[in-house]
Amino acid sequence: MRETKYPVYVLSRGRYDKCKTAMFLERDGVDFKLVVERHEYEKYAKNFDKKKIIVLPPESTGKGAIPVRNFIWQHSMDGGHERHWELDDNSHH
After folding, report:
1. Buried b (16+ CB within 10 A) or exposed e, 18-35
2. 3-15: per-residue pLDDT in tens?
3. Cα–Cα distance list, 62 to 2, 13, 19, 47 (Å)
4. What string of H, E and C letters represents the secondary structure of 27-84?
5. pLDDT digits (tens, 9 = 90+) for 59-70
């Protein structure tokens, strides 16, 4: 697994079986975190390593991308990172 200088986060919702970005990152051996809503956790866990999955808190769920991006930013800062990458789940390769 290739580590990155800054953490990589993939925001995903409803694409547990076709999350192309995460699939490409896995194929290329890039370390990343998959950020999902709690009610979809089990579906994602069938296709991706549970250690790579971060479950959103309830206050960041169902309110669009801005609360999710704010959660990721805080998660990255809490991990001591000054920067991070955020990727959507539908990137094409």
Report:
1. ebbbbbbbbeeeeebbbb
2. 789 999 999 998 9
3. 32, 10, 19, 22
4. HCCECCEEEECHHHHHHHHCCCCHHHEEECCHHHCCCCHHHHHHHHHHHHHHCCCCCC
5. 877 778 889 999
